[in-house]
């Protein structure tokens, strides 16, 4: 079955352009012109990926991304849905970092080339489809069923939160996960907090993984967050 895409875009020309081309490329597309409408469709249509344009009349694009990831009381949508944000033409590295911290899987600044956007959409969908019971990153294997971690076949003993942090990072090994996103998804923090919890767990996990192999895992990206693997 074709992947279902929710397109949250208030600008009519861009929305029409994307709806037409995405449909021609085999995607099932539903469109929304505002944040509230997008959340209702996320609940009802259960899309495989949400493409968020900017701006929206009733919320910023980043606000919609945050609400999709965090969920809301009494509402039910897939909080792990693929999420790509289309940034403004004057976007910079800080804008991209903020989008990733809000839980976006990818960030595409405008103006964009449609073939590249289509490739990025398919890449995010592939990653989501591949997030099964066993996650792999180089010599590292993470088995979610048995909660076992191995490097080069050697078992690494990790704590419960270290395992949850590793699972999160292993879903997309080269992506930089923002600190706020990790604190929210692994520890359940609802807002930004000044705490060393994440850094302490990441440091211990890095040490344990390094003890059984030469690879460097759980890399700190200063000022942003963590990634499992380097470039």
Q: Would you give an account of this structure?
A:
With about 230 residues, this protein is an alpha/beta fold. The chain folds into 2 domains: about 5-130, Rossmann fold (3-Layer(aba) Sandwich), CATH 3.40.50; about 135-225, Winged helix-like DNA-binding domain superfamily/Winged helix DNA-binding domain (Arc Repressor Mutant, subunit A), CATH 1.10.10. The chain is built from 8 helices and 12 strands. It has a 5-stranded parallel sheet with strand order 2-1-3-4-5, sandwiched between helices. A 4-stranded antiparallel sheet has the order 6-7-8-9, with helices on one face. α6 (about 160-170) crosses α7 (about 180-185) and α6 (about 160-170) crosses α8 (about 195-210). The radius of gyration is 18 Å and the shape is globular.
Task: Write a concise keyword list for the protein shown above.
8 helices; globular; 20% strand; Rossmann fold; alpha/beta; 231 residues; 40% helix
